[in-house]
Amino acid sequence: MAGALPLAWLVIMALRDVAMLGDGLLSSRTATLLWNTVLLGILVAVLTGAAGTALAVLLMKTDLPGRRILFALLSFPFFLPPYVLALGWFTVLGRHGLLAAVLGPRAGMVTSDAFFGLIGAVLVLTVAYTPIALHLAAIGLRSIDPAVEEAARTRFRWPRIIQRIDLPLISPPVALAMLLTFVLVVGEFGVPAYLRYPVFSGAVFTQFAAFLNIQAAVVTSLPLALLVVVGLAVERYWLRQQVGFLARARTTPLIAPLGRWRKVSAGGAWSYAVLTVVLPLGGLVLQAGGVASYAAVVRDAASSIIESVWTAGCAATVMLVVGLMLAYLVERSGRTRRNALDSGLLLLFAAPGTVLGVSLILLWNRPGLTGIYASVLIVLIGYVAHYVPVAARITGVGLQALSAGVEDAARIAGVPWTRMLRRVLAPMLAPALVGAWFLAFVFCLRDLDLVMTVHPPGVETLPVRVYTLMANSPGSVTAELGVVMVMLAVAVLLVAGATLAISRRSSAWS
To answer: Which residue ranges in the chain fall short of pLDDT 50?
Structure first.
């Protein structure tokens, strides 16, 4: 109801005017947008796969100093809206950025011209999505049987073992990370729009918001939707079985000593983290100014901050309940139903926010439904449609770790299913449920594409406020709001970590 029906209605509306559909899909503009979108997606996917794999090997298989802190630092960009990273990089590479201050105005002109376009979009999105490859490659390394490496160590050194054993074994999860990155990048709106790089998601939003041409927006959505469907088909029919071994992930992989290369490797890894994460965020802080200037900005943006937090919290709570039901259906039902439902959920998550937003408008913008379409409810429906697969997948991972015998024992004891779910499964799934809620909350909190498309007058989340102020406000104001977004993400992650630790102890006690 929240996601599949609007997307189906969008396809039906597109097929109603075949002539316009053909003209729109066969135009030179469509070919240009398709080339730009695919090129951006491929470049970012390849770079994130290479960077994530190299970093995962260093952090998971070696005795690199400060590995945990470095892992957390490199993961942090994923919890920020990508356009906030773009703002940070602009403070470094812009005409009046940090490089211009150090190297002179001419250098600032060169870096600024290069930043606004494909190069800047690739840079920002690579930093934003490298954590996907980093985490999946790390999980793959944990899943390797140490006995295989121990046997290889009788004849070979660690570099050859990593090259000939570890890297081939983790190639499926790295390929999955690259595929997920490609799907997310082709649907990205904020960064390409800010950096003036024309892609399909921006064209969809422009047709709707600037020209009020719903039919043209629908037609423009179809090639973008087709790219997403192709990506999901690859995941379903090629990668799904190959990454099944990730469920065997271990927590104590063998460690390869770096020896005399330890300091060099640490310097390279930390330099990469400082240049890609600390430098742009530090530039954002510097441009924002002193602490006193934040009071006025926070006071002006208080309503947007509150709007973001309570809508994300409500949506995450709904997603937790619905996600638990969906996860149970996926993990405890027959293979055919499980595959169909899982594929449908993944399609909802991979659907670009602008496309999903246009489909929601097509379905809900009609007489008798204005109470939903013109209120914050349309935003909540969009959140649930887009991100409930996140809650379902994380909860499903928790269910995979529980034996079905627990439920069988409850049935034999005559415990009703609802009570068994509430009194048996929920306490044992507490860590997964907490993780699912917080991750869904973070996704809603950072969302721009969907909310920018559907938000009604009077409903303005913090990402929307930051984005709309980019073009019309001083750089210090947008930088201050960007820092507020960063601090909000840090606060959420700290609360999530503390809550997850408590839930793990509670689950172990249960």
So the answer is: none
User: What is the DSSP code string of 81-113?
Assistant: -HHHHHHHHHHHHSTTSHHHHHH-HHHHHHHHH
Reported pTM: 0.88
- Whole-number Å distance between alpha carbons of 482 and 294: 11
Residue from 383, 263, 266 nearest 313 by CA = 383
Q: Are 483 and 284 in contact (CB under 8 A)?
A: yes
Residue 115: its pLDDT value, please?
A: 92
The CA distance from 265 to 258, in Å, is 8
Q: Which residues contact 354 (CB under 8 A, 6 or more apart)?
A: 187, 189, 201, 202, 204, 205, 208, 221, 224, 449, 450, 452, 453
Q: How crowded is residue 461: how many other Cβ atoms within 10 Å of its Cβ?
A: 27
Residues 6 or more apart from 501 whose CB is under 8 A from it? none
| pLDDT value for 405 | 78
Distances (CA, A) of 30 to 27, 83, 207, 364, 450: 5, 25, 13, 28, 22
**CB hemisphere CA count around 121 (13 angstroms):** 27
Q: Which CATH superfamily is domain 291-510 in?
A: MetI-like (1.10.3720.10)
The domain segmentation of the chain, as residue ranges, is: 24-288, 291-510
How many angstroms separate the Cα of 294 from the Cα of each of 230, 241, 253, 382, 478? 45, 50, 45, 31, 11
Residue whose C-alpha is closest to residue 506's, from 431, 397, 439, 436: 431
What are 188-209's pLDDT values in tens digits? 888 998 898 998 888 887 777 6
Fold of 24-288: MetI-like fold (1.10.3720)
Nearest to 176 by CA among 80, 78, 245: 245
Contact assessment for residue 257 and residue 220, using Cβ atoms and an 8 Å cutoff = no
Helix and strand numbers, DSSP H then E, in the chain = 29, 0
CB proximity list for 251: less than 8 A, separation 6 or greater: 142
User: Which residue do the tokens 């149970």 mark?
Assistant: 328
Q: Is 291-510 in the same CATH topology as 24-288?
A: yes
For the stretch 457-500, pLDDT in tens is 888 898 888 888 876 767 778 888 888 888 888 888 888 888 88
